[in-house]
Design a protein that fits this description.
The chain has about 160 residues and is of the alpha+beta class. The chain is built from four helices and seven strands.
């Protein structure tokens, strides 16, 4: 997997066609199952991902799942999201809205024969804020998504 993948993007949010698109990839020394459990436990993100705060899942949900709505603070902004794709151990994606802008963030997991997992995280954003702050948002997303990937390794935060 290299560069943005072609399939699975909502209309108007293909990362190659929006003001802000980010792609990060890392092979981690963990199984897809271990990575998956860390990803869907969104309430625990702040323990190992410094750019996540105040994660609240709606409707009494404990883990992210199909259709789960959640709110969280990232990049200092409160974002409302909904899980759009939930294929255990393979793909997790959510849509989000904030300040008149919308985005789509997805995670792809590829188990490797040696027990490691190749993890891709991609995000696309469209709207006024991504248009105006394009360069800064791109840099920020790439930096923080890399930290998020590094935090997926089980154990203490990096």
């Amino acid at each position: 997997m290299t560069g943005h993948s072609d399939a699975g993007w909502p209309a108007g949010l293909d990362p190659r066609e929006v003001p802000v698109g980010a792609y990060n990839e890392l092979t981690v020394p963990a199984t897809a199952e271990q990575v998956w459990h860390r990803l869907v436990d969104a309430r625990a993100w702040p323990q190992w991902y410094a750019n996540a705060r105040h994660v609240v899942l709606d409707g009494g949900a404990v883990l992210l799942g199909p259709g789960t709505r959640f709110r969280w603070t990232t990049f200092g902004v409160r974002v409302t999201c909904r899980v759009e794709v939930c294929l255990p151990f393979r793909e997790l994606a959510w849509s989000g809205q904030v300040l008149g802008s919308r985005g789509y963030h997805r995670w792809l997991l590829e188990p490797l024969p040696d027990g490691r997992t190749r993890v891709v995280t991609e995000e696309a954003q469209r709207g006024l804020l991504p248009t105006v702050a394009r360069a800064r948002l791109r840099r920020g997303l790439r930096h923080w998504h890399q930290r998020w990937l590094e935090g997926l390794v089980p154990g203490p935060p990096p």
